[in-house]
Design a protein that fits this description.
Length: about 500
């Protein structure tokens, strides 16, 4: 392919063929013109010579023009070829560009498709996330509902546990108290009809009611028997007291010993009456001096000879509580003498304090262990007596003291004694203590011999048995029907 030059580039050289044809035409003109001119001049034809010259010039002009036209045509052809080549290259480039554009469009389309797919995937992912959030919210709601239900269930269970725990702590004691008071099961459970465990409470209440009826019947039998023994002991005591004035000194000692034994039997009967809830002993209308209360308690125990009294108080115990205080002191003194081996002494101290009257009983026995001390404190505490805790080998004295302490508001405490044994302090409350002129000593029991009594320095005092003339009238023994043969 021939080179093509731009109009601004260097001039193009004519083609060799054009140059050759032009040169041949010029040579032909140069050869033919002289020949024609020569011949014309030879023929003396100047006009012909001029014409030949003119024709030659015209020929040369025509040849030059033809050469120029040929060259121009060639150049035009070359330019056309170049333009065609450029056009073809441009077309090729355009095709390539179109292909590239098509490829780009395809790539763009693929990118758009991928973008749309990505957007669709993103939309699906967002939809999945939204669905997951909705599911999570639903699960949270379900979890919250489950937690609320579980919490409500725990609260219900806790309430039921609390109700179940309250049954033995407050409900049953209240029901038992009402049943022991003579109420029917329906009446005792009237305040608990809406209790979730009402059926259980009713079954337990009916069983407790049945047991309480049996217990009440047994206590009634024991109280009746104790009352008969009390009446018999009172009658025997009155008869022995009357016999002491009728017989001489030879039988007086025997009568005193019988009177003392009768007093101890009466104390035991009174103890049974106290435990069964019946009335124990006599009641005094006027205050009884503390000294007489102490001597009366001494007359109801066996080892009264080993008891030493230290009393300088002129106080008295009100009449309605004198018998209970005397009985409680007798039980404490009996315990002290029983736990002190002879000839060990038991000392009793009386002290007036701001809260009332403190009576301290100290023995020199072996003392009580911690477990026995706790049992003793529990026996005389403010807790109601449970007869089921009293076994066949149980000493009933402290149980009797506990019942009397709860009845009259006495405070009983135990401590180690300076004498090596056990000290018991009975605080008689101020409302039971008076300083008015007391009635004569009741002397519910006479001691067989003089009971050794001491003041603060323990000097010997008058005999424990007061003069018969100073005794109050002994109440007549009630008529008692003969006891059944089963009672001994």
């Amino acid at each position: 392919m021939r080179e093509a030059t731009s109009p601004d580039g260097p001039p193009r050289r004519p083609a060799p063929r054009t140059v050759a044809l032009t040169a041949a035409a010029v040579l032909l003109a140069l050869v033919a013109a002289p020949v024609g001119v020569t011949r014309a001049l030879g023929a003396h034809q100047p006009l012909t010579a001029v014409a030949v010259i003119a024709v030659t010039v015209l020929w040369l002009i025509a040849v030059g023009l033809a050469a120029i036209d040929t060259e121009r045509s060639r150049r035009l052809a070359e330019e056309l070829a170049a333009q065609h080549e450029e056009t073809r290259a441009a077309l090729v480039a355009a095709g390539t560009a179109r292909q590239a554009e098509t490829a780009a469009r395809e790539r763009a389309g693929a990118a758009l498709v991928e973008r749309d797919a990505a957007r669709a995937e993103q939309a699906r992912a967002e939809a999945d996330v939204t669905a997951a959030h909705a599911e999570l919210a639903r699960l949270r709601e379900q979890l919250a509902t489950a937690r609320a239900e579980a919490e409500a269930e725990r609260e219900r269970a806790a309430a039921e546990r609390a109700e179940l725990e309250r049954i033995p702590e407050s409900v049953l004691p209240e029901v038992v108290k009402k049943l022991r008071g003579g109420a029917a099961v329906d009446s005792a459970l009237s305040a608990h009809r809406k209790h979730p465990q009402y059926a259980l409470l009713r079954a337990v209440g009916e069983e407790i009611g049945r047991g309480e009826r049996l217990r009440a019947a047994a206590l009634a039998v024991c109280a009746t028997a104790a009352g008969r023994v009390q009446a018999l002991a009172t009658s025997m005591h009155a008869e022995l007291r009357e016999m002491q004035h009728r017989h001489d000194e030879e039988v007086l000692g025997d009568l005193l010993r019988l009177d003392h034994s009768t007093a101890q039997a009466g104390r035991m009967a009174d103890g049974i009456a106290v435990l069964t809830g019946a009335r124990s002993g006599r009641r005094w209308a006027k205050p009884i001096a503390v000294e007489s209360v102490l001597r009366g308690a001494l007359g109801r125990i066996g080892a009264y000879q080993r008891v030493r009294l230290h009393n300088a108080s002129s106080a008295a115990v009100v009449g309605f509580a004198a018998e209970g205080v005397m009985h409680a002191l007798a039980e404490l003194l009996d315990n002290a003498t029983n736990f002190s081996a002879p000839p060990a002494e038991v000392h009793v101290y009386v002290e007036e304090v701001s809260a009332g009257l403190a009576v301290t009983v100290e023995d020199s026995g072996l003392g009580l262990s911690d477990s026995w001390l706790r049992r003793a404190e529990r026996a005389v505490s403010a807790e109601p007596l449970d007869l089921t805790t009293l076994s066949a080998g149980t000493r009933l004295g402290l149980a009797v003291v506990g019942v009397l302490a709860r009845k009259y508001g006495l405070q009983i405490s135990f401590r180690p004694s300076a004498r090596g044994g056990t000290g018991v302090v009975m605080l008689i409350p101020q409302q039971l203590v008076t300083h008015v002129a007391p009635a004569p000593a009741p002397a519910p029991a006479s001691v067989p011999a003089q009971a050794p009594v001491a003041e603060s320095v323990r000097p010997a005092l008058a005999p424990a048995r007061p003069a018969p003339a100073s005794l109050p009238p002994v109440p007549s023994a009630p008529s008692v029907p003969s006891a059944p043969s089963t009672l001994t």
